[in-house]
Amino acid sequence: MTARILRGTETSALIRDELRDRVTALREHGIVPALGVVLVGEDPASVSYVTAKAKGAAEVGIDEETIRLPAAASELEVLQVVRRLNADPRFHGILVQLPLPGHIKSERIIEATSPEKDVDAFHPINVGRLLRGEPCPLPCTPHGVVQMLVRNGYDPGGRHVVICGRSNLVGKPLAAMLIQKRPGANATVTLCHTGTRNLAAITRQADILVAAMGRPRAITADMVSSGTVVIDVGVNRIPDAAAPKGFRLVGDCNFEALKETVEAITPVPGGVGPMTVTMLLLNVVEAAERVLAARGEERKTA
C-alpha cells in the first residue's frame, strides 16, 4: 500500500482563497486587516520567515509592515515598539520574530504584546484560554496540523492521537486543542516525550501520529501501524554533498519507509510548513473580524 501524500501547499492554497474573500468583506466595511512585524537583527532564517509572512499577507490582501531593529537594540527599545503597535488601531496583529538576541528576554516581549493582537498565540493569557477551551487566537503550527487533518477527511474526533514531542510550540498546545469537546477535536490524546518508555509500543496504537521531536527520521516504519495517518512537523537539516547547499531537509519520520505502510503522511518540505504561515494570516483576519464585531456591538448598545 502506498500512502496518500498530504501536501500542505494544496491545503494552504484553499484556505488562502477563503481568506481573500474574508479580507474583501472586511474592506467593504472599512476595515483593512494589518500585521505589524518586529524583526531584531539579520538572522538569515528569521529574515526568510519574515519575508514569507510578508509575501503571504500581500497574497490575501493583508497590509503588512516590518519594523527592523539592529541586533544590538535594547530590550526597552523592542518593548517600546511593541507598545506602539499595541496602541495603534491600524494593526490587528503583532508578531515579534523569534528567536531574539540573547540579551533580550523573549518572555517579557511576549507578555508585553496585547493578547488580542497576539497572532502567534504565545501570550500566557491566550495559552490559558486555549487550555480552558475559550475563544482565542490559536497557535499557528498546531492549528495547521488540525486543519490538515480535518480538510483532508481525517477528523480527530474519537480517534487516538499520539503526539511525539512536548514543546510549547507544538506538542503541548496541540494536545490542548485536540482534547477540547468541539468539532475538529474531541480526540483521545497521548503525549510522548524523551522520558517515555517503550515509545514504539505507544506509537503503534495511534490512529493519528504527530511527530514533533526535532530528531531526523526518529519515527521508523516498525513504530507505526498500517492505516495510521502521520503528520510530520519536524524540519531537520542533514548533510548531503549532492545538494546545492550541502544539506537537505528531512522530517522526524523516515518518509520513504513509512509511505509504503501508512494510510497518509505529510512530506518534508511541503507538508505542515506552508500551513503555519497561513494560520498566522488567518489569525490576523480573525482579529480584524473581532474588531468589526465589536463595532456592531457598540452600535447596538449606543
Task: Give the topology.
Blueprint lengths: L3 E2 L2 H21 L5 E7 L3 H17 L2 E7 L5 H13 L5 E4 L9 H7 L11 H9 L7 H12 L8 E5 L6 H8 L9 E5 L6 H5 L4 E4 L17 E4 L3 E4 L7 E4 L4 H4 L5 E2 L7 H29 L1
Parallel strand pairs: 1-11, 2-3, 2-4, 5-6, 5-7, 7-8, 8-11
Antiparallel strand pairs: 9-10
Helix pairs in contact: 1-10, 2-10, 6-7, 6-10
Summed up:
The protein has 302 residues and is α/β, with parallel strands linked by helices.
Quickly give the structural class: alpha/beta
Proportion of β residues? 15-25%
Cα gyration radius (Å): 20 Å
Total helical segments: 10
- N→C terminal distance: 63 Å
General form:
globular
Strand order of the largest sheet: 1-11-8-7-5-6
The CATH superfamily of the largest domain is known as NAD(P)-binding Rossmann-like Domain
Estimate the mean pLDDT confidence.
Answer: 95
Which ranges are low-confidence, i.e. pLDDT below 50, for 5 or more consecutive residues?
none
CATH architecture of the largest domain, by name, is 3-Layer(aba) Sandwich
Sheet having the most strands: 6 strands, parallel
Number of domains: 2
The CATH topology of the largest domain is what? Rossmann fold
> What is the share of helical residues?
40-55%
SSE string = EHEHEHEHHHEHEHEEEEHEH
User: How many beta strands in the DSSP annotation?
Assistant: 11
CATH class annotation of the largest domain: Alpha Beta
